[in-house]
Amino acid sequence: MLRQLDNNLWVAEQPLKFMGLPVGTRMTVIRLADNSLLLISPIAITPEIKQQLNSLGTVRYLIAPNLFHHLFLADCQKVYPQAQIIAPPGLETKQPQLKIAKTLTQDEIDFNSELEYQLFSGFQILIIPQIKIANEIVFYHPSTKTLIITDSAFNFDGSYPWIIQLAMRMIDSYQTLKPSWLEKIAVRDKQAAKTAIAKILAWDFERVIMAHGKIVETNAKQQLAAGYQWLVS
Fold first, then answer.
1. Chosen CATH of 3-232 out of 3.20.20.380, 3.90.110.10, 3.30.70.270, 3.60.15.10
2. pTM of the predicted model, to two decimals?
3. Is the pLDDT of residue 27 over 50?
4. FRET pair for 120, CA 20 to 30 Å: which of 2, 177, 185, 227?
């Protein structure tokens, strides 16, 4: 079920296990001025969600923000065959069956200043054995001062199951909006990553929506900057 956070901004969550951990996952929906809808990190489209989306506008873009959040993309495209798939570099090789319309940042997309994006680059895929860390498309919705990230930071607190709390403590990402130590060891081009996070932190955002964890509604920029101090310093 969609939940409205702000004007032209919604989210929907669903259960998801990763390596046996109930991390859950979240889709972000943005409506543009022409009533086009963008689905960032699509989840399974239930009849209820489909009805809600259809009442809001026309689904025009299906966005895979990194090389892992594509699990429901093919099924979502079957529901919305007219929608264009937007993906980061590399997904066309990993998932050749997908009909990718645009690859960021190879193909520029003009959202008429309603939505901005930045490729958070400088990372290399790691397999430990199933954990994948890679470049990620980060979005900024200026009208609601909202940053939309995927796996570049988490925010799990005491409201989550104990097993999640334990796992987040182990990777140094519990009760705070920050990346885990896995991101630190995944950096292969520090200058590229540093340049990207500087551009991201230059945006005027208050809220951060991430794919896993509790949404941060206030002072999110300060928290994210503190979480990435090791990279920007």
1. 3.60.15.10
2. 0.89
3. yes
4. 2
